[in-house]
Amino acid sequence: MARDRSGGEPDELQAVLDALDDADARTIVRELEEPMTASEISETCDIPLSTTYRKLDLLTDASLLTEGTAIRADGHHATTYEVAFDAVRVLLTEERDFDVEIEGGARTPDERLADIWSKVRRET
Q1: CATH top-level class for 2-123?
Q2: How far, in Å, CA of 42 to CA of 51, rounded?
Q3: Lowest mean pLDDT among 4-13, 58-67, 68-77
Q4: Which pTM was predicted?
Q5: Cβ(47)–Cβ(28) under 8 Å?
Q6: Residue 77 in contact with residue 69, Cβ under 8 Å?
């Protein structure tokens, strides 16, 4: 699935470039093979939790991560993060403007619901 940002605001391009220019953000993307909470990401990537939250905001604002919810039996649900792309392309348009295209990674609502139900079944 491709999300085309053709004709989008320059802020969108800058958000993607800023996120990919950040070493900690790139580490998070590399290590995020499955949905994880901020605490799990912090531990896995060896990044302080406060920094992890800032980097997660940077990546989600750039539409490079999606947020989900981990359903827990004790009722304390947690926000999870997942990579929302397979490829990022920076393009030069015919008007000689820079643009960004983000492809793949985003899951359909049906796929997300199926994941939630499979997690609920494993926990019960």
Answers
A1: mainly alpha
A2: 8
A3: 4-13
A4: 0.74
A5: yes
A6: yes
Give me the residues paired with residue 88 across strands: 102
Tell me which amino acid residue 80 is.
T
Structural domain spans, the chain: 2-123
DSSP the chain: -EEE-TT--HHHHHHHHHHHH-HHHHHHHHH-SS-EEHHHHHHHHT--HHHHHHHHHHHHHTTSEEEEEE--TTS--EEEEEE--SEEEEEE-TTS-EEEEEES-PPPHHHHHHHHHHHHHHH-
The pLDDT value recorded for residue 74 is 82
